[in-house]
């Protein structure tokens, strides 16, 4: 990976990788374009230029109602959910040093689902209470998995194995709760478990924005330490990284981001698994690629939501169905390419 150094007149210097920088800018433009197109899509189509004009305060009353009240909050929820899942996946894949170390593979997504279903099924709670249950379930699962994986430190191999076991047990709990639910609660829980952005409004956006504004800078600020953790604990210690404290801060932030994203839109699968890997292949840069992973997660979720609402005629699909199909195709491609390369 080639790097260049940008020097200012005041003597400051910043090193950057041109390809990684161009990739981040390209993903940012793709996410913005997808958001504008998605806002303009629907039963009352609006041209992209009119969408931009409406966002700047120059639209007609009808356009302002469609954009500002109906479609913009849904798209903003998708933006922050995608970013949270992408950056959460990048953190756990880097901490575990395993591409399968994704929150929806090692149990954190299932923990949030159990928390939400417990509220829905056992206490007949509403949407807000279910969202709170998803956050609590994700955090409790994160603490339990971390404690079980602890043995004079947390190794990535042990974390993934215990996480997969926890995911299996939590999936059994999810199935049990569904069987115990009454018909209406079971139907509501099944829809929520699919993962959807339908009906999301400002009530889901503001908590998501508040948590993201606090935690995303924390994770991005630890990007250099996370890159060193990928080299192993001993190397990180030698380079001055406080390994366990850094790991707890990063894992706690990632668990909370994924839990809040799940609370806002349900368990949307495969985004946290695929976004960091696609970002790494695009930038061809080692390390967690946190900014690129967050933008890749956002772009993937926006494009998947556009496909879910526009590519199947009048039968709109939950976005979780589309991400599941795309994630399955990605896994097949990954297995074939790894086999051709002789690595499996």
Widest sheet: strand ordering: 1-2
Span from first to last CA?
25 Å
Spans of 5+ residues with little confidence (pLDDT < 50)?
Answer: none
Q: Do you know the CATH architecture?
A: Orthogonal Bundle
CATH superfamily annotation: ABC transporter involved in vitamin B12 uptake, BtuC
Helix content: over 70%
How many structural domains are formed by the residues?
A: 1
Radius of gyration, taken over Cα atoms and rounded to an integer in Å? 21 Å
Overall strand count: 2
Query: Could you name the CATH topology?
Result: ABC transporter involved in vitamin B12 uptake, BtuC
Q: Please report which band the strand proportion falls in: under 5%, 5-15%, 15-25%, 25-35%, 35-45% or over 45%.
A: under 5%
Q: Could you tell me the mean pLDDT?
A: 86
Oligomer: single chain
Largest sheet: 2 strands, antiparallel
Q: Based on helices, strands and strand pairing, what is the structural class?
A: mainly alpha
Order of helices and strands: EEHHHHHHHHHHHHHH
Number of helices: 14
CATH top-level class:
Mainly Alpha
What characteristic shape results from the CA principal axes? globular
Attribute tags:
single chain, 344 residues, mainly alpha, ABC transporter involved in vitamin B12 uptake, BtuC, two-stranded antiparallel ribbon, 14 helices, 2 strands, 74% helix, globular, membrane
What does the model show?
The chain crosses the membrane at residues 20-40, 75-93, 105-123, 129-149, 156-178, 202-221, 248-270, 290-308, 317-336. It is a multi-pass membrane protein. Pfam families: FecCD. One of its GO terms (cellular component) is plasma membrane. There is one protein chain. This protein is 74% helix and 2% strand. By secondary structure, it is mostly helical. It has one domain: ABC transporter involved in vitamin B12 uptake, BtuC (Orthogonal Bundle). It has a two-stranded antiparallel sheet. Strand 1 (4-7) and strand 2 (13-16) form a beta hairpin. Helix 12 packs across helix 13. The longest helix has 36 residues, at 61-96. The model has no long low-confidence stretch (mean pLDDT 86).
